[in-house]
Write a structure and sequence with these properties.
This is Glycosyl transferase family 1. With 908 residues, the chain is an alpha/beta fold. It has 38 helices and 23 strands.
Length: 908
């Protein structure tokens, strides 16, 4: 279940109340309903560069189908506002329709990169030509419309085109002077943008308008008949004919019944628009609507797209990156056309959105595993046809359901293929090791894309087949194309929907602060692949969650797990698939439902991200960052370069490849949290190239139960405040952690042997599990292996020991170090990374450079009782210096949380 934030629910209820007020402004028997912002196939020159590169129109929607949708949704009059032309309106007039002539002109500010759309109504064919000639100077354009009594409306006033430059909020000051009518309800924009538009227009007092006019040297009467009397309109901004007419404008015409006897509706509505007697009505552009729109558009691209031509594409204006990406899209679409099953499904889905029931032959040809998907598609068609008022509610549940179904099928089939490949010893799956040369050799694909799909490969294509993937791609793609494509298309459409709604988020934030209304809360969603596992990352995050819950910090942690339950500030989503990677110690990874996480992010009103793991959640963090235009930060728990060094047999250039991959990943984030100075220096070094200002040094802390110290000895020789932990001649040395090679556990035998030669009764206790457990027990037969020790029992274990050993050079911080210090247990560790930032050498523990030095330090410690007492006191004092409140305050500051107040938060 997705829980709405207070901001999200309040925003919706406030704006819905506004729409209800607008609906009641005029008597219903004196209003005409019209969608004054919609498009059809004559909107054939897109504003977006990719559309022009690929020769894709904005829509293939036929005029007659748009008219049919508008009439079905209850509009009283037709207009079609295509970009820079009124061809559809003229054609409908020729066919005998009563039409309000309109168009949406793309206008430009002189000497500026800014472009805006202007809805324009009631012009003649000759005036249309004049408007197209004038639209390259918005000042001349709007003066002309006033002189010729042609009413204009500024659509989506907070969404305009700045060619990737951040707009200045002062542009709204010019809008306030130049326009009299504003679209405060756009069916393709979200609640937040529509609400801010409404608040901004309502804030425009005569004094403000005069001040703006003076500031920008503009005369408001050059552009408006009554510049101080602003009016509201609404429009669907629909391009595909799915939601046309569901959002629009109520035009008030007093004495409507009598006036209709002598005057056409188009003339009456034009008069109402001129006089400002209008009000918005209908649906807000939630993400579900935009997702469906993009899904339908992609389906039509797959059906209609032709090859754009390589030379034309390369010679077209635009960056090389845009051209290469469009080349990839073109190749993907042309190959998709060869996959008849997928193409049939896309056609079926497109028709269902317009209410057409899937054909019988289509239903018969669907395999058993896809029948649930077809059932959902049929329900979409039935609802659009018979219950259109409920259509959006059905879409809200249907799209995620389809995504979940096809994603599950994809992973199921992929797992079958990989299992077969493993059995056949294909593609190097047996005895798999992370070797980049081997991966590239085995998984290399030809640069000639046709070779990927050729059924009978020619000698030229297979000459280097020993160095190409031995997976049967043709067979594999036949099985995976549809579910993979369906998953990617739905995710892509959902991504595009969020990106359109939130692409100008910085501008919206600035406006909200300027208005002091509608400010989006500052709230972090913290993503992690691991939370309840037996590792240091999970332990640290659990401590973090406790602190978040204690003080109600504006952070929620999200993880994916099959059995873990959500709780306060912890959001758990169920996996759609699970898999293990043996080279990572049989770590189980849960594949989350990305669409669900996206909805959680939107409805939870989060506006920034922290991610703790580089795997699946790392990719999702970057997806959310781009989709919602929010800052994302990475919390570096693991040193993967050290992991590779310790566990993989890689040469220099292979390690360099991994470094470059990590660098490319980390550079995508606005900031990196790191737990030690060595890591910070490495991240800011030339080989990683991350700005110093973007790398933040942070720390962990331990749970409260580690801080409770006993006041007297127990029968197991526990110490008093003035006595060492264990004053008997059988000192206990303790290792706590994962039993794996990179943790340095195979240094323990030589260390323990050296200590035993001087202190025969010394004991070594090993707490933890891992892939090296069995082998370690063989080489350390005299040690006591405790297995996994629950967190609740660890403090007692620390207080029974004399010294904690950390032979790892892998740890970025070393939570066990801090846990031990908190229980007054000194630590000896290698002088590297995290431990050296925590341990004060020869004060709260020992920092050594080798196994031999570690053994010497242990022997020295056991021989000096005074030193033990001083070190135990110092250990406890050092642990108390790492206060969670200060650490969290710094973390929030570096995450750019500016409006969080401790007192306010604690009182909630």
């Amino acid at each position: 279940m997705i829980i709405e934030s207070d901001f999200h629910s309040r925003l919706h209820s406030d704006y819905d109340a506004f729409l209800n007020e607008q609906k009641l402004r005029f008597p219903s028997n004196e209003t005409l309903k019209i969608d004054i912002h919609c498009h059809d196939k004559n909107s054939d020159v897109p504003d977006e560069l990719w559309g022009r590169l690929l020769r894709l129109p904005e829509t293939w929607l036929k005029t007659k189908d748009l008219v049919k949708t508008l009439e079905r949704n209850g509009t009283d009059l037709i207009t079609v506002t295509n970009h820079n032309n009124a061809r559809s309106c003229w054609q409908l007039l020729d066919m005998g329709y009563d039409v309000l002539v309109g168009a949406e002109f793309t206008c430009h500010f002189p000497d500026s990169q800014l472009s805006i759309h202007v809805l324009t109504y009631g012009f003649t064919p000759s005036q249309e030509r004049d408007l197209n000639n004038l639209r390259h100077n918005i000042l001349d354009f709007t003066r002309y419309t006033l002189e010729n009594d042609i009413p204009t409306v500024l659509p989506h006033p907070l969404f305009f085109y700045t060619h990737k430059q951040r707009p200045d909020i002062s542009i709204l000051e010019k809008f306030a002077v130049m326009f009299q009518r504003f679209e405060v309800l756009n069916g393709q924009r979200g609640y937040w943008q529509n609400q801010l538009t409404r608040h901004w227009v309502e804030s425009l007092t005569p004094d403000k308008i005069n001040a703006y006019a003076h500031k920008h040297n503009l005369n408001p009467y050059d552009f408006c008949t009554d510049p101080y009397n602003k009016s509201f309109t609404g429009g669907s901004d629909d391009h595909n004919g799915i939601f046309a007419g569901r959002t629009g404008t109520l035009a008030h015409i007093p004495d409507l019944e009598n006036r209709l006897k002598n005057t056409r509706r188009s003339e009456l509505v034009l008069e109402a628009i001129r006089d400002g007697n209008t009000a918005p009505y209908g649906e807000v552009g939630k993400e579900e609507k935009l997702t469906v729109t993009f899904l339908d558009y992609f389906s039509q691209v797959a059906i209609h797209m032709e090859d754009p031509g390589l030379l034309r594409l390369l010679l077209h204006k635009g960056s090389l990156q845009d051209k290469m990406l469009c080349l990839g899209v073109s190749n993907a679409m042309q190959e998709l056309k060869r996959h008849k099953y997928t193409l049939t499904f896309l056609k079926t889905f497109h028709e269902a959105l317009s209410g057409t029931k899937p054909a019988l032959l289509t239903s018969i040809g669907v395999s058993k595993e896809f029948r649930p998907t077809l059932k959902v598609v049929k329900e979409i068609a039935r609802t659009q046809r018979k219950d259109p008022d409920n259509f959006l509610n059905i879409i809200r549940t249907a799209i995620p359901e389809i995504y979940n179904l096809v994603t599950s099928i994809f992973f199921s089939r992929l797992n079958q293929h990989l299992t077969l490949a493993k059995k056949d010893n294909q593609a190097g799956f047996n005895n798999f090791e992370l070797n980049t040369d081997e991966l590239i050799r085995k998984f290399e694909i030809p640069t000639q894309l046709r070779a990927l799909f050729a059924g009978d490969k020619t000698p030229e294509l297979t000459a280097n087949s020993d160095h190409m993937t031995s997976l049967n791609l043709t067979k594999m793609l036949d099985q995976l194309t549809f579910p993979a494509l369906a998953s990617l298309v739905i995710a892509g459409a959902s991504f595009a929907a969020s990106q359109v709604i939130y692409s100008n988020r910085p501008f919206l934030n600035e406006l909200a602060d300027h208005l002091d209304k509608g400010q989006h809360p500052q709230k972090i969603l913290w993503l992690t692949d691991t939370f309840s596992d037996h590792n240091g990352v999970s332990s640290a995050l659990q401590s973090t969650l406790s602190e978040i819950q204690k003080y109600n910090y504006p952070i929620d942690i999200l993880t994916c797990h099959p059995t873990l339950k959500s709780e306060e500030h912890l959001v758990v989503v169920e996996p759609v698939h699970q898999f293990k990677i043996s080279s990572l110690g049989e770590q189980e990874f849960n594949v989350p439902d990305m669409i669900k996480i996206q909805r959680i992010f939107e409805q939870g009103s989060y506006d920034r991200i922290i991610c703790s793991t580089e795997m699946l959640m790392g990719a999702i963090a970057l997806y959310l960052k781009k989709a919602f235009s929010v800052p994302a930060f990475f919390f570096m728990h693991t040193d993967w370069m050290e992991f590779v060094q310790q566990t993989m047999n890689l040469n220099g250039h292979e390690k360099d490849r991994i470094r470059r991959l990590l660098r490319a990943f980390y550079l995508q984030f606005e900031g990196i949290y790191t737990l030690n100075n060595d890591h910070r220096d490495w991240l800011t070094s030339p080989e990683m190239g991350i700005d110093t200002e973007k790398v933040f040094l942070t720390q962990h802390w331990v749970a409260d139960n580690y801080r409770k110290q006993p006041s007297q000895c127990d029968k197991e020789n526990r110490c008093s405040n003035n006595t060492p932990h264990n004053s008997q001649p059988n000192p206990i040395f303790l290792y706590v952690g994962r039993l794996s090679d990179e943790k340095g556990v195979f240094d323990l035998p030589s260390i323990y042997s050296a200590v035993k030669s001087k202190i025969p009764h010394a004991e070594l206790w090993v707490a933890g599990t891992g892939p090296a457990a069995k082998q370690l027990q063989i080489v350390l037969p005299e040690a006591t292996f405790l297995g996994w020790v629950d967190k609740a029992d660890l403090p007692a274990l620390y207080q029974r020991a004399d010294l904690l050993l950390l032979p790892s050079r892998f740890d970025t911080f070393g939570c066990v170090v801090l846990e031990a210090l908190s229980c007054a247990l000194p630590v000896t560790a290698y002088n590297c990374k995290g431990p050296k930032d925590i341990i004060e050498d020869k004060v709260s523990g020992y920092l050594v450079d080798s196994a031999h030095e570690m053994a010497e330090a242990m022997i020295e410690y056991c021989r000096d009782l005074d030193k033990q007492i001083k070190m135990q006191d110092a250990a406890l004092l050092r642990s108390q210096q790492l206060k969670p409140e200060a650490i969290m305050a710094e973390l929030l500051k570096n995450a750019q949380i500016s409006d969080f107040q401790d007192d306010a938060c604690r009182s909630q």
